[in-house]
Amino acid sequence: MSSSHTVRSRPVVALALGLIASGAMAAPVVTPAWTEPRALASAVTLVFDNRITETRDLPTAELQQARRRMIAGEQISWDQMRALADLGDGLAAFRLAERIVALNDPTLLGDAAFYYANSAYTNRDYAVGPLVRILQRRDVEISPRRLEHLENALRALALNGDEKAAKALTDFYMSGHPFGRQPEKALEFRLDLAQSGNADAAMALVLEALSGRAQVPLDDEQVQRLLGIVEASDDLGLRTTALNLRRMRGLETASAAPVEPEPPGVRPLARPAEEAVPQ
């Protein structure tokens, strides 16, 4: 089965080729760091909010009409927009966040981030970019409870295959802003990404193990499983690199058929046909 994770840049491949050319190989270790099966590192619930997927899901005729007008590009009131968003309408949550951002008031950006996250929770990946940009700012104050909500939204998207969310969350953990510096949590998250089928995350962990730079040691069986995830990728370059690394490591190649990654726990929801992606 091919992985759904498509990656456009391959710095890990260049590093792998360097390892192959030099014949570098870390000594095998015996301390297992990744048991099977391995639970996700955090308590985040990997379920998207699908309460409102069609206009008829709304409880009142007034709100249904307001949503039809919103989809048609007509103006609706702040109260109507917020009512739709708070009921679980991801499109309304995104539009409300956009309205808040347009006010150019940094003190309100925490509210905008909240609604971008709610939109992302309905599997609207276009909400990830503006959410990340707010979290990157240093002039925005967000309560710890709300930060946890935003972090969980990014994790849910990342573990469902959103590479922008995955990169942003890893960077946030390593930089310390805005969730605090958490290198251990960053490593656990990378392991979760690999298990969810992210070939880049799996390859990076393999390269660290082979070069002796791994934060947590991986034994040959664990490396082989990670290589299997890479070999299930759609990317020919990654698959070829994984095969070469497997040979360099002296691992069995007879069973080199792709190892299917564990299900990430979520599946993409179909966006309602009546809804256009916001521009």
Give an overview of the whole structure.
By secondary structure, the chain is mainly α. The protein has a domain at 55-159 and 162-192. It is built from 12 helices and no strands. It has helices at residues 11-22, 61-71, 78-86, 90-102, 109-121, 128-136, 144-159, 163-175, 183-195, 199-211, 220-231, 236-249. The radius of gyration is 21 Å and the shape is elongated. InterPro entries: TPR-like_helical_dom_sf.
Distance between the termini: 34 Å
Question: Quaternary arrangement of the chains shown?
Answer: single chain
Low-confidence region ranges: 1-11, 17-45, 254-271
- What is the mean predicted local confidence, pLDDT? 77
Helix content: 40-55%
> Class by helix and strand content?
mainly alpha
N-to-C order of helices and strands: HHHHHHHHHHHH
Beta content: under 5%
Q: What count of helical segments does DSSP give?
A: 12
In total, the number of strands is 0
Could you give a short account of the major beta sheet?
A: none
Keywords: Signal
Organism: Rubellimicrobium rubrum
Protein name: Sel1 repeat family protein
